[in-house]
Amino acid sequence: MKRLHSHLVGVDQGEKTLFSDFEDGGDMWTGTGPRASRARVKFSSSFQSIPVVQVSMSMWDMDRLTNMRADIQAENISKTGFDLVFRTWADSRVARIRASWIAIGDLPDEEEWELY
């Protein structure tokens, strides 16, 4: 469990289209085997400490003739952002993915001073 140490709690959220590979024959649509798409997301302002980040697929478009294999995660989470990573494997054909995310964490208190 993440404990929040401040009375100032911030919630930031957004959506990001990771790719649309069916339009240009990209690797997620035409490739096989392990594949990944990664995008950096920046928060609208910095958190005081590393926030909790939840990601989910808000739109997915996959070929009906192959198995639908998908993994989506937040990686490299920092006070200022994170990497949004979608993965698939084997013969899955993924046309496009849009992901939603939400981050919750401590905010800096303007009344607190940092001396060093």
Order of helices and strands: EHEEEEE
CA distance, first residue to last residue: 29 Å
Strands, count: 6
Strand content: over 45%
**Mean pLDDT over the full residue set:** 92
**If strands are numbered along the chain, what order do they take across the biggest sheet?**
1-6-3
Structural class by secondary-structure content: mainly beta
Low-pLDDT residue spans: none
Proportion of residues in helical segments? under 10%
* Rg over alpha carbons: 18 Å
| Total DSSP helices | 1
The major sheet is characterized as: 3 strands, antiparallel
Indicate the overall shape: elongated
Q: Nutshell version of this structure?
A:
By secondary structure, the chain is mainly beta.
Please tell me about this protein's structure.
- The protein is mainly beta.
- Helices cover about 5% and strands about 50% of the residues.
- The protein is built from 1 helix and 6 strands.
- It has one helix spanning about 25-30, and strands at about 10-20, 35-40, 50-60, 70-75, 80-90, 95-105.
- The strands form 2 sheets. Strands 1-6-3 form a 3-stranded antiparallel β-sheet, with no helix packed on it. Strands 2-5-4 form a 3-stranded antiparallel β-sheet, with no helix packed on it.
- The mean pLDDT is about 90.
Key descriptive features of the protein:
elongated; 6 strands; three-stranded antiparallel sheet; 3% helix; mainly beta; 116 residues; 1 helix
